[in-house]
Specification:
CATH class of one domain: Alpha Beta
Structural class: alpha/beta
Strand content: 5-15%
Number of strands: 9
Distance between the termini: 78 Å
Number of helices: 29
Helix content: 40-55%
CATH topology of one domain: Rossmann fold
Largest sheet: 5 strands, parallel
Length: about 600
């Protein structure tokens, strides 16, 4: 058998393995074939495609560019190169490659499919759907296009349509593991946990040694708060792929929910290396992380030769407030501190901690953040100061203060109503993650509590609430106080003052809860079914927040919908007012119960 015949035999064996999803074996045979026939375009393009599918994007890019030097209009190479650039987040170049491929062959289903994936990544969902539809016009049973179209439909919250696409893909290709996992995600979002878990289980049966299958099942179990099962799947994924930062991070989040801080924080540091997390959650100007990573990290109190430390803000404003509760201990280290905070709270932090130099968070990092001898992301502070549950006994009862004259201003306006209890209300978050939206209520859900006499309710929800407020007032006949002149998103000094002027905040998980916790304001934080939406609201059986001593968790496993939970809140408020009318001093006993 000559070299070319041997290369052809290896190539066809590799194709069969490739089709079965056995990428490592396929790549090995492709490479052996390529060594025997170095300039064979079909071997090069299929190997490049396998590299893309196994996330070896640089290898794919280099191979495609070599092939394009031989055949500048090789459609398969252009399609694979687009996939490589997509994986490398070089989206403009990826799109240009697809357009080049479509110039070569306007009826390339693979090029239209890749273009759809790139457009989806660019948040151009409607255009992405058109590209997937065009691919399916050309090749109606194209499993990848059906799967990718389903993912885009999930982005648009068109879940039933997404399910239909995944099922059609699986009818064509029953062993399509990615589509089966995506089916599981869509079912989970629709609340069908049993069927979702079955879909993930089937994917694992099909590909038991694929770490990504176990990882995706673990992520689904995390959402369901099946902690033991999630840990088992994350650990299985790590046995198969010890370098998986996604699995290390997921395992850390489970342990944070379980308040196993000693074992959690190291894995939590993996967030910095997660591509999707860097782009969407870590900083609103992701390129600034490149500057951060060139600087020397602070190892914590006692590190020698540290002249000053810069703390870089990260994540949303609620997370920023949460991490800033460690500022008093930072001050106690006597190391000069530069601390980045949201500009809307800059003055409040400056009033509270004269020893610290605060700088406003902005797009490109403030020059002061890059001029210190050490740096650290604020989310890494707990790994230095909160290594175990007992460490949380040091959490400050109060972190910030509102301006006294503004508190007096709002208190006078509220007391004109002569209420016995001034209750602030907030009920939703602007975060769009599908699993987060479950923590949101509607103002209409609170209608039963508006019937309670002796309480005045104050709308402190950020965003436009006029329509909800008007509907609630029409339905209940009770007026909610709203200070129309306050922008509850931008005027955070005023928000702090309004909260301080009230006796109690009742809220779902959102930034307002963090502001109240930082003020030391008494707060009832609501969530359904005893499923904390974030690890920092997990209570470990105490129904108190570890991070904010003034925040009480109001939830229970049997309170699985908003009517049941709001009815529970109403009973507690009635009891609270009875206590107030009795004129007793000290905390009401109900304040320490669910």
């Amino acid at each position: 058998m000559d070299r070319l015949e041997q290369a052809s035999q290896l190539f066809f064996q590799a194709l069969a393995l490739h089709e079965q999803g056995k990428l490592d074996q396929a790549k090995r045979l492709y490479r052996e074939a390529l060594a025997l026939a170095p300039d064979r375009p079909s071997i090069m393009s299929n190997l490049a495609t396998a590299y893309v599918q196994s996330e070896k994007y640089e290898d794919a890019r280099a191979l495609c560019e070599s092939l394009l030097q031989i055949e500048p209009e090789n459609e398969a190479a252009l399609v694979a190169l687009a996939g490589a650039f997509l994986g490398l987040e070089r989206l403009d170049e990826a799109l240009a490659c697809c357009d080049r491929a479509l110039t070569v062959n306007p009826d390339s289903a693979h090029a239209h499919n890749n273009k759809g994936s790139i457009l989806r990544e660019l948040d151009r969902a409607d255009e992405a759907l058109k590209s997937f539809d065009r691919a399916l016009d050309i090749e109606p049973d194209f499993p990848d296009a059906l799967n990718n179209r389903g993912n885009t439909l999930q982005d648009l919250d068109r879940l039933e349509e997404a399910l239909a696409g995944y099922r059609r893909a699986l009818a064509v290709k029953p062993d399509y593991v990615d589509a089966r996992c995506n089916l599981g995600n869509a079912l989970l979002r629709l609340g069908d946990e049993e069927e979702a878990n079955a879909a993930f289980g089937q994917a694992i049966v099909l590909r038991p040694d694929d770490a990504s299958c176990h990882l995706r099942f673990a992520d689904a179990l995390l959402v369901q708060q099946c902690w033991d099962e999630a840990i088992a799947e994350y650990e299985h994924a790590l046995r198969l792929n010890p370098a998986s930062t996604d699995a290390q991070y997921g395992l850390a989040i489970v342990r944070l929910f379980r308040q196993e801080f000693e074992r959690a924080w190291r894995g939590y540091e993996c967030r910095v290396g997660l591509k999707s997390y860097r782009r969407t959650h870590l900083r609103n100007y992701p390129a600034s992380l490149i500057s951060y990573e060139r600087l020397v990290r602070w190892q914590g109190p006692g590190e020698p030769d540290v002249h000053d430390v810069a703390l870089w803000a990260e994540q949303g404003i609620g997370d920023q407030v949460l991490f800033s509760t460690l500022i008093p201990e930072l001050v106690a280290t006597r190391v000069p501190i530069v601390y980045e905070v949201d500009s809307r709270l800059l003055a409040a932090y400056q009033r509270a901690y004269l020893e610290v130099r605060f700088v406003p968070r902005q797009g490109a990092p403030n020059e002061a953040l890059r001029g210190t001898s050490r740096v650290l992301l604020a989310g890494s502070l707990p790994s230095l100061f909160r290594r175990s549950r007992p460490d949380f006994a040091r959490q400050p009862a109060k972190l910030l203060s509102a301006l006294p004259e503004r508190v007096s201003h709002y208190r006078r306006r509220l007391e004109a109503e002569r209420p016995q209890l001034k209750v602030a209300l907030s009920w939703r978050s602007v975060r769009s993650d599908w699993w987060v939206t479950r923590k949101n209520a509607g103002l209409a859900d609170f209608a039963p509590v508006f019937e309670i006499s002796g309480a005045q309710f104050v709308d402190v929800q950020y965003g436009d609430t006029l329509a909800e407020r008007s509907a609630a007032e029409t339905t209940t006949g009770r007026r909610l106080v709203h200070f129309d002149e306050v922008d509850y998103f931008e005027d955070l000094e005023e928000v702090l003052a309004v909260l301080e002027a009230c006796d109690l905040l009742i809220t779902t998980s959102n930034a307002t809860a963090h502001f109240a916790g930082a003020l030391g304001k008494r707060t009832w934080l609501l969530y359904l079914a005893d499923r904390a939406p974030f690890h920092y609201w997990a209570h470990g059986g105490t129904y108190r927040s570890l991070w904010y001593p003034s925040v009480e968790i109001v939830s229970a496993p049997h309170l699985t919908d908003w009517p049941a939970l709001i009815a529970h809140v109403r009973r507690r408020l009635v009891s609270e007012l009875t206590h107030v009318r009795a004129g007793s001093n000290g905390p009401h006993p109900a304040a320490c119960r669910r």
